[in-house]
Specification:
The complex is a heterodimer.
Chain A: E1 10-16, H1 20-31, E2 36-39, H2 47-50, E3 67-70, H3 107-111, H4 121-134, H5 162-173, E4 179-180, H6 218-224, E5 228-230, E6 234-240, E7 246-253, E8 256-267, H7 270-280, E9 302-305, E10 308-312, E11 325-329, E12 345-350, H8 354-362, E13 365-366, H9 388-395, E14 400-407, E15 416-423, E16 429-434, H10 439-458, E17 462-467, E18 470-474, E19 500-502, H11 517-546
Parallel strand pairs in A: 1-2, 1-8, 2-5, 3-16, 8-19
Antiparallel strand pairs in A: 4-11, 6-7, 7-8, 9-18, 10-14, 10-17, 11-12, 12-14, 13-17, 15-16
Helix pairs in contact in A: 1-6, 1-11, 4-11, 5-10
Chain B: H1 20-28, H2 41-48, H3 51-55, H4 60-76, E1 82-83, H5 90-109, H6 118-129, H7 136-139, H8 144-159, H9 163-169
Helix pairs in contact in B: 4-8, 5-8
Classes of the chains: A alpha/beta, B mainly alpha.
Protein name (chain B): Gluconate 2-dehydrogenase subunit 3 family protein
Organism (chain B): Gordoniibacillus kamchatkensis
InterPro entries (chain B): Gluconate_2DH_su3
């Protein structure tokens, strides 16, 4: 049984998913005095007792339920790009907190690729400010790229890790500027949370609470403001009324079905589950799925290409020490026509633990730095590495350094989420995720692998192998001004159903070449402000009509 | 034979500095537990002859933990995160794959897979990893690369979560509530593994 406050009531908002976006929305809307229920499929964990300094057991922070993956570059899902439980992906992200550049919102205009967003950098700027201030992002005094040049609310992290220092040395030799990464990780105490102790397990869940997550920041604030957050509740359907408006949602908890009615339904269940839910809620009025008159629900999903290059050094590096990402460069972020592809990328010095590096080695590819030979993608390449070779490489674990790519990929209509014929244990169709890199993506990867190898070489190491990988998911319910080629408007309101909103990374029109969490949260702050503003106007209208 | 650079380092000596939850998770990997909930005895013995070759290590206690991990994963059946269309779910893939390997061994060598010598087993696994395993009558319907990859992933994730292996590669292990203080290049906190000449 589940205890519920609003079982018989229609609340103002029901939010599906308590991740980066859902947490922000719940806090903002509850603090504005609205009645809010948040439904989260996964558990509500206590960082000090349920997290552990252990890679294997903390894989459970990702969405482990099986998705079918197809395409020429089938994606690795789970912990790689999703969250499961209150806090969502913020419980295990690296904490990298970057802003999009102005060009990211207008790639069609600037470079003739992708699509333009219906908003510009200036529209999000005040919300970036807010999202960074509210969690005291630490970062450099001066940030050299993009529109925002600092300073950040909190000073940059100090000390760094051996891997970050080597990265900075290598970049300096090549005249590539670097910064200490802007991080949602405290460099000094804030709101009762302590500064980081360089434990290094950001991807396994922060135990000291130094790294922000909505689990420890926004959700508790939302609850204090009166929001009801229900964990272990899997939403199975958006319920529709005969008037074409959403009535609420159906959800399952411990095998039983429940309903929650709401004036406005907001889906913040991320890039795979939002389309899955919309498609699975199809009815006679919306036979192709809800909010899908454009046919774009599930389409245009994007990842970041996230190849890792490992280099070996004579001296010890010890990739386990310190926060995984502490040094970054965006020197190669902007389009450079000389490179032969559009858009660009961010590079991070990135730590690695035994399980991640060992699994990486099994999938690793030899470096091929010859020009015009594509670097192998995710779905192709040489046979797995195992046995003696794997063991020998792992005995040198402490001598490896690693640089990681966050590369822009272009949106493609066929990179999409659909429903599979196969059902899950609840009888819901499994999500099928199709993904293939395009030619521009492959050229960018090739260039980035070359740059990463040069940085390692310049630092005194020998680049040894590359692990093809991806990070992050974006798109699938993209925003836009044209209802025939987008799912929502710029606030996430679906074109087809006036009281159904979508708010999270699935709104992204393009991927950018940097980590998305700051932008996800800025969009959520913007949507929340819009909804609060609208509610106030409605209240005013109601008052006026009574008067 | 390449050996550990840290032969006397034992990460478990640090366990009093770890939080209780982590300590219970990591120390449970040292327990030799034998009860299988999903695997049959023959399947477990086939894996016992298979997994050591993947990680180039035959130590019984570590391999036993690997088998227990595989058994537990299949028994709990929490989800595979991703699977390609046409590939059977992991329980089915493992069950039919282990059976096929047994039959392949019997048909080619007249012996159980776990009775074959190391070289023959390695040859069979190499063929499997390249989707060259025969005869096709036995392997029909078993996606070979996916089978090899699934056993490899389950083996590697547990093997490199074993504290004895952590010690050998000089990994600092759990680090809460202690964290790291000395993090410049070449600096070590006093409790970290020191390379021995």
């Amino acid at each position: 049984m589940i205890e519920r406050r609003y079982e018989q009531e229609e609340v103002d908002f029901v939010i599906v998913g308590a991740g980066a976006a859902g947490g922000v929305l719940a806090k903002e809307l509850a603090e504005a005095g609205m009645s809010v229920v948040v439904l989260e499929a996964g558990p509500w964990r206590d960082p000090q007792h349920d997290f552990a300094s252990d890679e294997l057991s903390m894989k459970s922070l990702g969405w482990q339920e099986t998705r079918l993956v197809s395409g020429s570059d089938p994606l690795t899902m789970g912990h790689n790009n999703s969250g499961y439980g209150v806090g969502g992906g913020t419980t295990h992200f690296t904490g990298v907190f970057l802003r999009f550049h102005a060009s990211d919102f207008m790639t069609r205009t600037v470079d003739g690729v992708g699509e333009d967003w219906p908003i510009r950098y200036e529209d999000l700027e005040p919300f970036y400010d807010r999202s960074e201030r509210e969690i005291a992002v630490s970062g450099p005094k001066h940030f050299p790229w993009g529109e925002f040049h600092g300073p950040y609310p909190y000073p940059e992290r100090e000390p760094l890790s051996p891997n970050a220092y080597l990265f900075k040395i290598g970049c300096e030799k090549l005249a590539i500027r670097t910064v200490t990464s802007p991080l949602a990780i405290l460099s000094a105490p804030f709101e009762g949370r302590p500064p980081c102790i360089n434990r290094g397990f950001c991807n396994q869940g922060c135990m000291p609470n130094s790294k922000f997550s909505t689990l420890i920041v926004h959700v508790p604030k939302a609850v204090r403001a009166g929001a009801e957050v229900l964990a272990d509740c899997m939403v199975t359907q958006v319920l529709m009324g005969a008037d074409g408006r959403a009535r609420g949602v159906a959800f399952r908890h411990e095998g039983r079905e429940y309903e929650q009615r709401a004036k406005i339904v907001i889906l913040s269940a991320f890039v795979v589950e939002n389309p899955r839910l919309l498609l699975n809620s199809a009815n006679a009025q919306f036979p192709d799925g809800l909010a899908n008159s454009s046919g774009w629900v599930g389409r245009g999903i994007m990842v970041h290409s996230s190849h890792d290059v490992y280099g070996k050094f004579d001296e010890e590096v010890r990739l386990y020490k310190g926060t995984p990402v502490l040094a970054s460069t965006q020197e190669l972020y902007a389009t450079d026509p000389k490179r032969g592809f559009a858009r660009g990328y961010t590079l991070h010095a990135h730590g690695s633990r035994p399980l991640a590096i060992a699994q990486g080695i099994t999938r690793s590819q030899p470096l091929d730095l010859k020009p015009n030979v594509p670097q192998a993608g995710v779905g192709s390449g040489s046979p797995p590495v195992w046995g003696e070779r794997l063991r020998h490489m792992m005995l040198d674990y402490n001598h490896y350094s690693r640089v990681t790519l966050v590369g822009e990929t272009l949106p493609g209509a066929d990179n999409r989420v659909t429903l599979a014929d196969e059902k899950d244990e609840n009888g819901l169709p499994r999500a099928k995720v199709n993904y293939s890199y395009c030619d521009n993506d492959m050229k960018l990867i090739k260039h980035a692998v070359q740059t990463m190898s040069s940085i390692i070489k310049a630092a005194g190491g020998t680049p040894e192998f590359v692990v093809p990988d991806t990070a992050h998911l974006m798109g699938g319910c993209r925003m836009g001004t044209d209802p025939s080629s987008s799912v929502t408007d710029s606030f996430g309101r679906t074109h087809d159903i006036p009281n159904l909103y979508i708010c999270d990374a699935s709104l992204f029109v393009t991927s950018s070449g940097c980590n998305p969490t700051n932008t996800v949260m800025a969009l959520a702050y913007r949507t929340a402000a819009h909804l609060i503003d609208k509610a106030k106007k409605l209240e005013l209208q109601a008052l006026q009509s009574r008067a | 034979m390449k050996n550990s650079k840290y032969p006397t380092y034992d990460v478990m000596e640090q366990q009093e500095h770890w939080d209780e939850h982590t300590r219970s998770i990591v120390s449970s990997r040292l327990v030799r537990e034998h009860g299988y909930r999903f695997l049959t005895t023959v399947e477990a013995e086939t894996l016992r002859a298979w997994c050591p070759l993947l990680v180039d290590d035959t130590r019984a206690d570590i391999i036993q933990y690997v088998l227990c991990h595989i058994d537990e994963t299949l028994e709990k059946n929490k989800g595979e995160s991703q699977r390609k269309p046409g590939v059977p779910p992991e329980r089915e893939l493992l069950r039919s794959g282990l059976k096929a390997m047994e039959q392949a061994a019997l048909s080619a060598h007249g012996r159980n897979f776990f009775h074959l010598d190391e070289e023959t087993r390695r040859k069979l696994l190499t063929e499997l990893s390249q989707a060259d395993a025969e005869p096709s009558s036995v392997w029909n319907g078993v996606p070979q690369k996916e089978l090899f990859g699934k056993v490899l992933a389950l083996t590697v994730e547990s093997y490199y979560s074993h504290p004895t292996v952590w010690s050998e590669i000089g990994y600092g292990g759990p680090a809460y509530p202690r964290g790291y203080v000395r993090t410049n290049i070449g600096q070590l906190d006093p409790w970290e593994a020191k390379a021995e000449p």
